[in-house]
Amino acid sequence: GVAVLVAVVVVIVVSTSSSSPEFGEPWKEVRLPKSIRADHYKLDLNITWKDMTYTGIQEITLNMTEVTRYILIHTRDLNISKEKTVLSENGGEVLEIADSFMDTDKDAELKNEFYIVESKKDLEQGQYKVRIHFSGKVNENKLTGIYQSKYISDDQGQAKEAVKQVSTDFEPVDARSAFPCLDEPDQKGRWTTTISVRFPKGIPADDYNIISNMKPKEEADRRSDGTDSIVTVAFEESLPMSTYLVCFAVSNFLAKKEKSTDCDSALIPLL
Prior knowledge:
Layout: H1 2-18, E1 36-48, E2 53-64, E3 68-74, E4 79-80, E5 86-89, E6 94-95, E7 97-102, H2 103-106, E8 114-123, E9 126-137, E10 145-153, E11 161-169, E12 190-199, E13 209-212, E14 221-224, E15 229-234, E16 248-251, E17 256-259, E18 267-270
Parallel strand pairs: 1-12
Antiparallel strand pairs: 1-2, 2-9, 3-8, 4-9, 5-6, 5-9, 7-8, 10-11, 12-15, 13-16, 14-15, 17-18
C-alpha cells in the first residue's frame, strides 16, 4: 500500500512540472522583466500635418541577461505592423519569429500595454535588435504623448488665424503612446532620432522648425514633391536617458540662441 502511494505522488509531481511553459507568461506582470535592458533607440518618425497622423520605424537594441524567447515592449493606442517586425542578433543575423501579439490578445482583461515578440529559438544572453513599424494619431484633445496645440496669430491687424504646432509630453508613462519603447524610468537608452514633417500646400513650411533633445547633425533638409513640402531633421545621438525625457516640437516660433560653457560653447536655442 505504501509503495503504490509513493508511485502516485511521483507521477503527479512530474506531470505538473512538465505542463508549465518553460519561460512562463511574462506579459501578465505589470513590470518589464529585469533581464531585458534598453541600450539604444533608432527612431524615424514621419508626421503628416494635414490630418495629424504619423508613421514610424523604431529599432531598439536590447541587452538580454537571461535566456528567454520573449521580448516585451510597451505600446498604447498604436497600430503595429506585426508582419513587418524584425528580430535580429546584434551581428545582423535575422531570427525567425514564432509569434507576435499584444498582451490583450492572450487575455482581454490585461492592461499592461505590452507588445510581445516571441522568438522561434531561445535567445541566449547577449545583444539583440527588434525593428517595429507603427502608426498613430497626434492627440488633438489632450496634452499628452504627441499632441497638437494652437495659438492665435494677429498679423498687423489682419484677420486672426489659429496656427498649429506639435509638441510632446511623455511623463510619466506616455512615451508608449507615441512609439514602441521600454517605458519605465530605470530603462535608460541612447536615442538617435530623425523627424520628418509633410506640410500641405498653403502652409509656409520654411517658417517651421523641428527641435529635439539634441542638436541637429546638419541643417534641416527642405524639399518639395510637387504638392507638399517636406522638412526633415536628423539629430545627434543622446546620452542614456529615460523614455519620459525624450521630447521634440514642431513650430514656427523664432529662437534666440545663446552660448553655454557646459556644451563646448555650442549655440543653444532658447524658445
